[in-house]
């Protein structure tokens, strides 16, 4: 198979979808890998490293002509014209929160496979997990930075000092993001509370975190009470492939501490606060009702050397399957990969995406039959 690796053009996005080591694995399996000029520079991979691995370096037009194109982030408007029938795009899509992109994918006839909705039979999200780990670990760092007075924050040190209480950190959601956020916040010396809806998950967190966090059943009332005391709130909720629930209302902001910080890691899926809107690393924060909002939609892009390697570690087996068996063959062989298909042949094949935009949902099997026919 001919595989293209596109350079990311989203502002301040330095990741690349494939490392030279990954390219070598694909070349050794008999596939052709074409990497866009300069695609790996932000992750410290020069073009020469890909060439040594057996990949070709080519301009953007040649890359998008390949059968399978690998990216990190969803296409942005200048890339929409490159979408076409016969192309399979494998990347983070997050289209439940992006209607224009959804319609561009549908209208183009492209096959769009989203990293974030590849899901195992046990409900694990193997391609989302490493970026969730990284975003979770970055969240307390970002929050601590913007709690500093020169940045407009309250002027409180996350870990406090002897004789002075540490900051209070509230983590909404105890999944992969929430757990990693708690680990780093604890390491920085903060007082951490996690709100979670699953008793089983809370028991697990209680065990692995050795009782160092306060674990509370998540409810609207509990959130209203806990958010009043927080210096830093981290939104870490996720419904795979769907819009994030708006748990933090505008009314709640009025009860929060002046110049406290909200880091909404769920912003890729629309955010978990009514007042959340996506920001960039260039301009990461804005303030609503005295609360600083940090809503960067590609947080792991700030640490691309770590992120790119972590991403290739988990995506490469799926890329190999797509290349070895063909797109349709790989989808039919692997239910987890099949769940990653969001659009195919002009049809929306992921129900939560269709619901988010009021579009018709077509079961994947039906879409596959139509494509083959």
Characterization of the model:
- The chain has 373 residues and is an alpha/beta fold.
- It has 2 domains: 194 residues, NAD(P)-binding Rossmann-like Domain (Rossmann fold); 169 residues, NAD(P)-binding Rossmann-like Domain (Rossmann fold), CATH 3.40.50.
- The protein is 36% helix and 16% strand.
- The chain contains 14 helices and 15 strands.
- The strands form 2 sheets. The chain has an 8-stranded mixed β-sheet, sandwiched between helices. Strands 9-8-7-10-11-13-12 form a 7-stranded mixed β-sheet, with helices on both faces.
- β14 and β15 form a beta hairpin.
- α10 packs across α11.
- The model has no long low-confidence stretch (mean pLDDT 96).
Coarse shape? globular
Q: In the residues, how many domains can be counted?
A: 2
CATH class categorisation of the largest domain = Alpha Beta
Instruction: Kindly report how far apart the N and C termini lie.
Output: 22 Å
Q: What is the C-alpha radius of gyration, as a whole number of Å?
A: 21 Å
- Average pLDDT for all residues: 96
Fold topology:
Layout: E1 2-5, H1 20-28, E2 32-36, H2 47-52, E3 56-58, H3 60-64, E4 68-70, E5 88-91, H4 99-108, E6 111-114, H5 129-146, E7 168-172, H6 176-187, E8 191-196, H7 199-208, E9 214-217, H8 220-229, E10 232-235, H9 250-253, E11 261-264, E12 285-288, E13 291-294, H10 304-325, H11 327-333, H12 335-338, E14 341-344, E15 347-348, H13 351-357, H14 364-372
Parallel strand pairs: 1-2, 1-4, 2-3, 4-5, 5-6, 7-8, 7-10, 8-9, 10-11, 11-13
Antiparallel strand pairs: 6-14, 12-13, 14-15
């Amino acid at each position: 198979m001919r595989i293209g690796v596109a350079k990311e053009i989203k502002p301040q996005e330095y990741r690349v979808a494939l490392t030279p080591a990954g390219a070598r694995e694909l070349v050794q399996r008999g596939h052709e890998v074409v990497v866009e000029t300069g695609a790996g520079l932000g992750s410290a991979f020069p073009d020469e490293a890909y060439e040594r691995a057996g990949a070709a370096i080519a301009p953007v037009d040649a890359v998008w002509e390949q059968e399978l194109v690998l990216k990190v982030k969803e296409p942005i408007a200048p890339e929409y014209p490159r979408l076409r029938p016969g192309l399979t795009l494998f990347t983070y899509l997050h289209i439940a929160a992006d209607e224009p992109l959804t319609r561009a994918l549908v209208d183009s006839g492209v096959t769009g496979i989203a990293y974030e909705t590849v899901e195992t039979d046990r409900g694990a999200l193997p391609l989302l997990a490493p970026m969730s780990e990284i975003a979770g670990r970055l969240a307390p760092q970002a929050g601590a930075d913007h709690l500093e007075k020169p940045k407009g924050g309250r002027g409180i040190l996350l870990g406090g000092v002897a004789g002075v209480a540490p900051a209070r950190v509230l983590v909404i959601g105890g999944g992969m993001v929430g757990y990693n956020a708690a680990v780093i916040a604890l390491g920085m010396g903060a007082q951490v509370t996690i709100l979670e809806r699953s008793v089983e998950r809370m028991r697990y967190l209680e065990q692995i975190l050795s009782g160092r966090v306060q674990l509370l059943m998540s409810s609207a009332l509990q959130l209203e009470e806990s958010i009043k005391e927080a210096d830093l709130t981290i939104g870490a909720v996720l419904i795979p492939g769907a819009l994030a629930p708006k748990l933090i209302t505008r009314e709640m902001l009025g009860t929060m501490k002046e110049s406290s910080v909200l880091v909404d890691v769920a912003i890729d899926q629309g955010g978990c606060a009514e007042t959340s809107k996506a920001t960039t690393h260039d301009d990461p924060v804005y303030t609503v009702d005295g609360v600083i909002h940090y809503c960067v939609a590609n947080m792991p892009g700030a640490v691309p050397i770590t992120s790119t390697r972590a991403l290739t570690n988990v995506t490469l087996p799926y890329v190999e399957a797509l290349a070895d068996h063909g797109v349709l063959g790989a989808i039919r062989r692997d239910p987890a990969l099949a769940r990653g298909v969001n659009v195919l042949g002009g049809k929306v094949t992921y129900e939560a995406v269709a619901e988010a935009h009021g579009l018709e949902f077509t079961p994947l099997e039906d879409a596959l039959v139509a494509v083959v026919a």
